[in-house]
Amino acid sequence: MVTILSTVFVLGVLVFVHEFGHLLAAKLFKIRVDRFSLGFPPRLFGKKIGETDYCISAIPIGGYAKIAGMVDESMDTNFLEGPPQPWEFRSRPWVQKVIVVCAGSAMNLLLAFFIFWGLIWIQGIEDVPESWNGTVEVMDGGAAYEAGMRTGDKIVKVNHEGVTDFEALAEIVHPSVGQPLAFSWERNDSLFQAVIIPRKSPIINRNMEPDSVGLIGIRQQTIHVDVGFFKALKYGSGLFVVNCRLFFTSWKRLLTGKESIRSLAGPVKIAEMAGETAKSGFSNLLAFMAFIGINLGLLNLLPIPVLDGGHLVFIHLEAVTQRTVSVKTKLVVQQIGMMLILGLMVFVVYNDIVGIIHK
Asked: Would residue 276 show up in a list of annotated catalytic residues for this protein?
């Protein structure tokens, strides 16, 4: 039940915010919006206000804002045979079209930014002291934990050499995958010693690329620091930029073959992660929502038919050539894109289920 509710909450908010962005932009330019729906047809219930039908639909995997004069793969195009009407999307200048199409992703990105900013402002941050006295936090199940080390212990030697800097300790551990290291640490007035073997572990390096190093499951003990409004803005902005860079790096690796397509997470995996995150606290669920929101917002801007980026391709093509692409051509491209997206969806769902079975 936690998994179901957290998934509905995360995806429901993100879809609503995305489509609401399209709705607001269209209304701003007085473009008619025929329907604003959470979920895909068939329509269940709703209310028509002015020219727009606001409704809830049966298939809860997305939503849409049906904008008059905007070609999509499911619309009735008979009326498009006539000249563009003033209230239609197709009659508007290039700038307005771009703003309407990009507004959904912009809202997802803004939501993610404000979540990061707000969480850091309210909760503060975990920072490391200016000088390290050897005290560490130990993760359950790691090599250090299995050797008997616990949170609050103070490392004094590695391979019989004194260690006073955590970065120096990392430089010893990271390249030592599979190699035994002799650790000495203190707890209260007792001295403990054990041989610990670093395990090869995946990380994201400073270039925002997947990497692997030796880890023993420890980190420098942190202290809680409250931050003000503007300092939270600085930290929130940095976290937002890091997640955006991670999105582009991940897709670059996929397209260059450095990353397997099997690494893509589908709705089943996202639901599993949402459930696990929700169990660790609502603030963590909000941070997860921000992460998914960044990916949803940027993914929609990729030049793929059916996605917002596909619409942008046609808008820019028409602006450059000063010629309107035929409705038939747009529909064919949209339908091909829909089949590709559905095929990818089937693959990632299958991949998610296989991954869970073999977990």
From this structure: no
